[in-house]
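Deliverable D2.4 — example input (structure tokens):
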């Protein structure tokens, strides 16, 4: 967390709000979030640059700079990129780790309470190498039913584990793997290699649908996720299974079960619906 819908929401917000803004000053408050660059070098290479574009790759938020370098943010559990026009609550500023001051008086904070996320500065070549290890984007046209079927049939791992492997499919985490598998009526513990082409087609459609719907509702907030303005995502009320172990299945009424046996993370499923 945040997963694809949350980082997509943040990236879109930033792209609308700060693209073409110049970074007049940079302050590194907690250098332990930096990767691949020292605090001094980060300040020197980012100050004075214009933000050319903000976008998402997998679970990363990427700022393209006029220098052809990229600020690459991986929010992980408690990270957020917040735009501060002077009204940001002090409770949010308190956990700012990196601050970019823009030429219009606003700031962008990378706020991270537990400092488990990261901020990297990469050259174009380094960024290309780094992202080449990531899998297909599930919202790209290349993510077809046939493509997913090939990925699944090549693995004997549980289908849920394959969906969450960023080298196979980029951006899906625990929340949306649970939701997509429930929508597709597939047991998360089944061997990926035993998923039929018809089931792969159903699963592909479920993945695309749940991710698209969550983006439309600006992601899922349980505790820490916030969009770029500090607001919570609204998809939590539309989750069918994640976070609902012990409740009734929305499809058949059977009681949902929760287990950590598949991958050490909570998996919620309907034993009657999902086979």
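Example output (designed residues):
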């Amino acid at each position: 967390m945040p997963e694809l819908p949350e980082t997509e929401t943040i990236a879109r917000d930033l792209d609308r709000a700060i693209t073409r803004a110049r970074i007049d000053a940079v302050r590194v408050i907690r250098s332990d979030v930096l990767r691949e660059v020292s605090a001094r070098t980060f300040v020197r290479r980012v100050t004075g640059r214009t933000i050319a574009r903000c976008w998402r790759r997998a679970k990363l938020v990427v700022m393209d700079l006029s220098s052809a370098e990229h600020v690459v943010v991986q929010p992980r559990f408690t990270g957020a990129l917040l735009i501060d026009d002077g009204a940001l609550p002090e409770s949010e500023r308190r956990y700012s780790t990196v601050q970019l001051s823009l030429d219009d008086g606003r700031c962008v904070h990378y706020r991270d309470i537990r400092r488990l996320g990261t901020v990297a500065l990469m050259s174009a070549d380094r960024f290309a190498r780094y992202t080449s290890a990531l899998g297909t984007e599930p919202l790209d046209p290349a993510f077809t039913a046939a493509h997913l079927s090939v990925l699944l049939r090549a693995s004997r791992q549980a289908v849920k584990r394959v969906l969450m492997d960023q080298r196979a499919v980029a951006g899906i985490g625990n929340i949306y793997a649970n939701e997509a598998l429930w929508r597709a009526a597939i047991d998360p513990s089944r061997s990926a290699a035993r998923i039929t082409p018809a089931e792969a087609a159903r699963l592909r459609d479920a993945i695309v649908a749940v991710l698209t719907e969550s983006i439309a509702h600006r992601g899922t907030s349980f505790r820490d996720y916030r969009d770029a303005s500090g607001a919570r995502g609204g998809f939590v009320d539309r989750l069918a299974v994640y976070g609902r172990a012990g409740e009734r299945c929305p499809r058949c009424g059977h009681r949902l079960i929760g287990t950590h046996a598949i991958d050490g993370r909570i998996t919620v499923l309907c034993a009657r619906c999902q086979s």
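Residues 4-132 form a domain with the N-terminal domain of MutM-like DNA repair proteins fold (CATH 3.20.190.10).
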